[in-house]
Amino acid sequence: xxxxxxxxxxxxxxxxxxxxxxxxxxxxxxxxxxxxxxxxxxxxxxxxxxxxxxxxxxxxxxxxxxxxxxxxxxxxxxxxxxxxxxxxxxxxxxxxxxxxxxxxxxxxxxxxxxxxxxxxxxxxxxxxxxxxxxxxxxxxxxxxxxxxxxxxxxxxxxxxxxxxxxxxxxxxxxxxxxxxxxxxxxxxxxxxxxx
Length: 195
Fold this sequence. Notes:
Layout: E1 5-9, H1 10-20, H2 33-48, E2 54-57, H3 64-69, H4 82-85, H5 88-98, E3 102-103, H6 110-120, E4 125-128, E5 142-146, E6 151-153, H7 155-162, H8 169-176, H9 191-194
Parallel strand pairs: 1-2, 1-4, 2-3, 4-5
Antiparallel strand pairs: 5-6
Helix pairs in contact: 1-2, 2-5
């Protein structure tokens, strides 16, 4: 059986790790909650989905060409909490020690990198993310794993969750908009109307 290429939406999982457990510090009083939860996630992935191919994909900040198209893109996002910011270098070092390649490219978001690799992979792909935008990539070879509820989203899972198939996610999100990314949709068009 072919093992999947595993593509991890790094900041999606780091933020989830940070908010999963609070008030966890080392003996020096430094926050370690995100490091701890992220390490557990990597251990679980290695145990349950062994693979020798994959990467953690990181954002490099707001992408200029998107800001030129939509200056308010992601303008509503709060700053990263300092207690999380100080854990990022440790998480990167930890992931590298686990053997994960860390990928980032200026002027591209992690989603862009994940999409490029998923489309070019030979064989199955497991995307680890909670980002609904990535649902448009799901096909016979690509599935999404939400690590918070251990739910897989294949084609049927995307339809069940959003009411539209993966190839219609772009239209669905365009109609509805995306509050997380500060992308406006059609006024009064919520998930049901968009579907």
